[in-house]
Amino acid sequence: MRRIFLGLILSVLSISVFANNLDDLKALTTTPEKLSGTFSQSKYLAQLETSINSSGSFNYIRDKKIVWHTLTPINSTLELTPKTMLSYQDGEQVNKLDSDTNPVVAVFSDIFFGVMTAQWQILEAYFSVSAEVSDGQWKATLVPVDESIGGFINKVTLEGDKYLQQITLYEPEGNITHITFDKLQQK
User: Fold this and answer.
1) Cα angle vertex 169, ends 57, 144, to 5°?
2) Angle at 40 between CA 90 and CA 53, to 5 degrees
3) How far apart are CA 186 and CA 3, in angstroms?
4) Is residue 95 within a helix (H) or strand (E), and if so which, with residue range?
């Protein structure tokens, strides 16, 4: 009986610490109206045992639009709004997906906007979020609570300070995508 009681107390304490860390994380991160910067990305492909590197720039207007412009190795742009996903190659539109005809677009948009703009309340709808905060730096681990998301992402780690600095996506088949942000400018 004492073990059960002790286990219950430890569970309550760990939930309390988790909540405080998430509250600290929410207080530390900011979502400016507009933000731009550069990124470098490395995608490890487990089956080929190789990585593909890319880099480019991004900018967002909170709750309206994210533009993800890959410059190398291929010039391409992804423009994401809460309702549409447009892709361009060499300046020409090659694809358009709309949430009215493809509900996955709305979920992808929610998650991408949530990650890029530190909107933890959105991310908590799709993921269990645990956080560590220390000396103005933070790390959050997101584990899908939705089975459909768990089909293509095992876990996401986010790290930063005032702004998001790194994202690492772990996929079920062993692929890992790591993105680092630099030259962040609030507009």
Assistant:
1) 125
2) 75
3) 52
4) strand 92-98
Question: Which residue reads 């079920």 in tokens?
Answer: 172
Task: Give CA–CA dist 184/187, Å, rounded.
Answer: 10
46: amino acid identity, one letter: A
Query: Judging by DSSP bridges, how do beta strands 50-61 and 34-45 pair with one another?
Result: antiparallel
- For 14, 66, 110, 113, the CA distances from 106, given in Å and listed in that order, are 33, 14, 6, 10
In tens, the pLDDT along 4-61 reads 333 333 333 333 333 346 677 767 777 788 999 999 999 999 999 999 999 999 999 9
Q: Which of 149, 187, 184, 146 is nearest to 170 (CA)?
A: 149
Residue 178 tokens read as 């790591």
Q: Residue 8: what residue type?
A: L
CB 28 within 8 A of CB 136: yes
Question: How many residues are there in the chain?
Answer: 187
Closest by CA to 72, choosing from 96, 92, 53, 88, is 53
Candidates 112, 55, 35; CA nearest to 79 is 112
Tokens of 63: 């709750």
Overall pTM > 0.90:
no
